[in-house]
Design a protein that fits this description.
Helix content is 75%, strand content 0%. The protein has one domain (4-121): Four Helix Bundle (Hemerythrin (Met), subunit A), CATH 1.20.120.910. α1 packs antiparallel against α2 (44-77). The protein is mostly helical. The protein is flat. The mean pLDDT is 91. It has helices at residues 4-37, 44-77, 92-97, 105-121.
Length: 122
């Protein structure tokens, strides 16, 4: 079982991370709009490459934001800290490092092996 101190510590980290991610997405969006407004025809290819990199980065941030929000929802539902693969409790050290994780160390290893097997089978 997850003790209250760990739960509160993880909640604080998740909320702080969520705010940071939202700010980063907002700033990237604002910069993308500003860059789009001042495009020069001579630099169009470089601008398009930069835009692609920015959008890729934004997608990564949004995925992490989704994971953080999911972890907060699991807290509210009383399922926080339980591995989705093994259904065992996630290690305290792992939760402190990655409070949005859905897997224990063992569960993450199982997921990784399954991914490798899937890639070999494709």
């Amino acid at each position: 079982m997850i003790h209250d101190n760990l739960l509160n510590e993880c909640r604080r980290k998740l909320v702080t991370t969520k705010m940071d991610l939202l700010n980063r997405v907002h700033n990237l969006t604002r910069n993308l709009v500003m860059e789009t407004a001042v495009r020069d025809d001579a630099d169009q290819l470089a601008d398009q490459m930069n835009e692609t990199q920015t959008l890729t980065h934004m997608n990564r941030l949004r995925y992490q934001l989704f994971e953080v929000e999911s972890a907060l929802a699991r807290m509210d539902q009383g399922r926080f800290g339980i591995c989705e693969e093994t259904e065992d409790y996630i290690e305290e050290k792992r939760l402190r490092a990655i409070p949005w994780t859905r897997f224990s160390t063992e569960g993450a290893e199982i997921q990784e092996r399954m991914k490798v097997l899937h890639l070999r089978g494709s």
